[in-house]
UniProtKB/TrEMBL annotation:
It holds the Pfam family Aminotran_1_2. It is an enzyme of class 2 (transferase). InterPro entries: Aminotransferase_I/II_large (IPR004839), LL-DAP_aminotransferase (IPR050881), PyrdxlP-dep_Trfase (IPR015424), PyrdxlP-dep_Trfase_major (IPR015421), PyrdxlP-dep_Trfase_small (IPR015422). Gene3D superfamilies: Aspartate Aminotransferase, domain 1, Type I PLP-dependent aspartate aminotransferase-like (Major domain). Residues 31-381 form the Aminotransferase class I/classII large domain. GO terms for molecular function: L,L-diaminopimelate aminotransferase activity; pyridoxal phosphate binding. Keywords: Aminotransferase, Transferase. Its EC number is 2.6.1.83. It comes from Kordia antarctica. It comes from the Bacteria. This is LL-diaminopimelate aminotransferase. SUPFAM superfamilies: PLP-dependent transferases (SSF53383).
Length: 383
């Protein structure tokens, strides 16, 4: 059987391939420490697990669920946005729960892109925006980010290009992989830009509570709902990556388009997961304070490790990664640099090049590893 042509537009996800190799090394007895992937190793709030367990005996627990999620979940998301971002959302029609924000990237793209449409995507950035765009026959149009502008796009420079075919623009602040933060002023300029060029902006916002004192939603900007959507997720904020719980928020008309796609693809989110998600969203700010105490200690150690590797990094960042520039004299590509560490020190970190050409020369360390393990890595590097 010949697969669809679209299958040739993408490659297997880097981590899907590389972690197979890492698992092979572990199976062969190598004591690999994985500082590569951003999958939280900590537990969700206890009440979340209790709520899931308790829900299993509810009469409706095992039935198909509403395509829009149960009303209590949408209400909890609305309250969470009001409390944490000062954004008012109508729980009836401005919120759509998702099975992780990653699926939302596909649903939004399917709702808005035709073949040949162009999509503005950050380089470096999360690779899924590119894959989804290509799978739909649309065209990625990269905007380069670099340290000199704190990894924010230069909108004036973008405007010098022909933007007439651009339908969507993906932004993601706090930014993965660099940890750069947006400012309110930048989001204001972005909304003006979006209105001028009739582009739908999507801010993918899963990192705003990790090592970040001022969570910011693009929807807090006046008039943003006309031209912007926001994706959010419980994966990192509440250590629930495997639960697959996220959401998209925005103007009712936009959400309706996304729902039209999504309701044809799945039949609702498992009831118990929704009950657990509600409890997570109801957490007090104390939850983030405690979580961030752990990440802050780990980050100190990763800074120490990066320094030992002669890498250079910015300390004014958010999110669960440290993005570091490789030593000038290494003469290695980032993939060769991380392979050397993998094969010589049994340590896996992520090469910056998988996030785009602008990521070459950088590596990304994850904070989803215990202090003990990071100390062990430091020891191995010192040897
Ligand atoms: C920038 C970015 N967006 C989205 C996701 C996907 O998150 P979720 O678990 O909600 O699908 C990730 C996960 O690593 C990410 O880094």
């Amino acid at each position: 059987m010949i697969p669809a042509k679209r299958i040739h537009t993408v490659e297997e996800y880097y981590f899907s391939k590389k972690l197979r190799e890492v698992r092979g090394l572990i199976a062969a007895g190598k004591p690999i420490i994985n500082l590569g992937i951003g999958s939280p190793d900590l537990q969700p709030p206890t009440v979340v697990v209790t709520a899931l367990e308790a829900s299993l005996h509810d009469e409706t627990a095992h039935k198909y669920q509403s395509y829009q999620g149960i009303p209590e979940l949408r209400n909890a998301i609305a309250d969470f946005y009001q409390k944490n971002y000062n954004v008012s959302l109508n729980a009836n029609d401005e919120i759509l729960p998702l099975m992780g924000s990653k699926e939302g990237i596909m649903h939004i793209s399917m709702a808005y892109l035709d073949e040949g449409d162009e999509v503005l995507i950050a380089n470096p950035g999360y690779p899924t925006y590119t894959s989804v765009t290509k799978l739909l026959g649309a065209i990625p149009k990269y905007y380069n980010l670099d340290a000199s502008t704190n990894w924010l796009p230069d909108l004036a420079k973008l405007e010098q290009q022909d933007l007439s075919k651009v339908k969507l623009m993906w932004v993601n602040y706090p930014h993965m992989p660099t940890g750069a933060k947006a400012t309110k002023g930048f989001f204001e300029r972005l909304i003006v830009f979006a209105k001028k060029h009739q582009i739908l902006i999507i801010n993918d916002n899963p990192y705003s509570f990790i090592l970040n004192d001022e969570p910011l939603s693009i929807l807090s900007i006046a008039g943003a709902k006309d031209v912007a959507l926001e994706l959010n997720s419980l994966s990192k904020s509440f250590n629930m990556a495997g639960w697959r719980t996220g959401m998209v928020m925005g103007k009712a008309a936009h959400i309706q388009h996304v729902l039209k796609v999504k309701s044809n693809m799945d039949s609702g989110m498992f009831y118990g997961i929704q009950k657990g998600a509600i409890k997570a969203l109801e957490s007090s700010k104390e939850w983030f304070t405690e979580l961030n105490k752990i990440y802050a200690k780990r980050r100190e150690l990763i800074w120490e490790l990066a320094t030992k590797l002669e890498c250079v990094f910015d300390k004014e960042t958010a999110g669960m990664f440290v993005w570091a520039k490789m030593p000038k004299n290494s003469n290695l590509t980032s993939e060769a640099f991380i392979d050397k560490l993998l094969y010589e020190k049994d340590v896996f970190i992520t090469p910056g090049s998988i996030f785009g050409t602008q990521g070459e020369g950088y590596v990304r360390f994850s904070l989803c590893v215990s202090e003990e393990k990071i100390k062990e890595v430091i020891k191995r590097i010192e040897q």
